[in-house]
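[[Sequence with tokens]]
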Amino acid sequence: MSLSEARKDRLIGRYSNQHGSTSKKGQQGGFRGPMRAMRFGKPKDMGKTIRRLLRYIGKDKQLIYVVLVFTLFTSLTGLAGSYILRPVINNLVNENLTNAQKVQNLLIGIITMASIYLVGVISSYLQQRIMVGISQNTLIKIRQDLFAKMQRLPLKYHDTHTHGDLMSRFTNDLDAVGDMLNNTMTQIFSGVVTLIGTLVLMFITNWILALITIFTVPFLAYVGNLIGKMSRKYYLEQQRALGALNGYIEESMGGQKVIKVFNHEDVAIEEFDFLSDNLRHIQRKAQFFGGIMGPVMGNLSQISYAISATIGGILCVTMNFDIGGLTVFTNYARHFSRPINELSMQMNIIYAALAGAERVFEVMDETPETEGTANAIEISSPYEPKFNTRVIKGEVVLKDITFGYVPDKTVLKKINVTAKPGQKIAFVGSTGAGKTTITNLINRFYEIEQGKITIDGIDIKDIKKDALRKNIAMVLQDTHLFSGTVKENIRYGRLDATDEEVIEAAKIACAHSFIERLPNGYDTVLEGDGANLSQGERQLLNIARAAISKAPILILDEATSSVDTRTEKLIEKGMDQLMKNRTTFVIAHRLSTVRNADMIIVLEQGQIIEQGTHEELLALGGRYYELYTGLVELD
């Protein structure tokens, strides 16, 4: 089967858009050449970003001055070392000196040059050593501030930004800043000093040759810019093609089971071959234009060098220009374009760093979660009362709640629910009816638009956010385990829990028996989100994590959806014990799990259409009756 042109376009467009800007491999792909800045684009507000970066760097202000001094020494010693050749060569060709004098002068010149270059080597080493330390200090401060800010951002922000995009702030963007701090700042200063010093020494050596060399600069700049435009064009296409290939590989590796189930192997291979060939075709052009930049500019510099040498030779014959001066000047002429090229190359890195820093600062400038109103109070659990704080019993009231995740799209409409301490409230309804949204609002993951939620009569906006969430335990439908031991993952529910309490929580969740069968029991290390456990076992650990919490309010968001029927029956007794004396909100897809609820609330399209006990709703013969008897199915 051959791929259609439309299919080819979709493959490139879909995967390059999806992964090309968020995947570290997709962006860098092993190519860290001059076009790297083009993948970030130019910063929108360069001045503001620079000032903000300087505030981070400024914490090592004194060390920056030391680095600049060493950089100055490094540049000047390079220039001075070359200029020493002039008297050395002139003495060697001076017929008025004896051979012994020439040898003596040669040795003095060699020792002088060696001393100058030794100072340069030491200065270069110290400059780089200190600058790396400054760079890493700056990066760790930015990285720590960025991570701390992300922990304080509301759930809405994380829901509206892909994980890959957020991860790229820590990887690609900060890598670009690190590249600039490590080398670019000192190279720009060194390049400027070298360029000015070279010009001064060229004019001191011979002003006629200096003017001739300067006249060649516009031509070199024109040719370099011409090649650079072609190179930028193909490097951009290369990154797009590379992102498409990496995206396809990532998706294929994650979907191997589906590929095999539907015998899609041959089609996958054909699509991969197309994307791979497309990348090869573009890479050839990108690498060609990127590779010829150095040789072309080098050869053009040699032309300038040849012109200077020829005219300089004529000046030696006609105007008594000294041989040593000609030698020194041609050396400067050969390397005159190098600092210019280096400075232009550094601009790409600067643009990349500033654009990356701007993306990092955009996250830092986001509005964090509000702790509560100005007079927000602390609350504590009856299981773990704190001195001088109000101990809550667990009465939760939702009054006239209206909410939408985005403007003009209401998800909940006039929701009224009252849960007495220790009651079990169940929410049932179709997908998208608003069940999970209600629990998100109780936790203040999102702020309420209209209405209010109270706990023991206190508006949750008047409770400190951390105190509120410490009194609410959740078991989510999507399991998430962290790298670490089984014991550490259970203890995540309450970090000060003892080992005995961890084991007791596991027993309540009926997880103790399978944990005991693991290679190292409770000390077994889980990796890759618990990849060495079944989905049901992972969920049991999540339930144990909630069990160890002493929160008086419990939320179970389809907690048993990933557990088979047999396991579900095993944990029902444990769950009943877990919910004892706690106000519990249950979202369940299996209606059999909510029969013993004190109140069952049926939601459809964000509204409560029925509520009552299991028996009351069956007697009503409405929507719940239809769902329970199988006349209609939950979708």
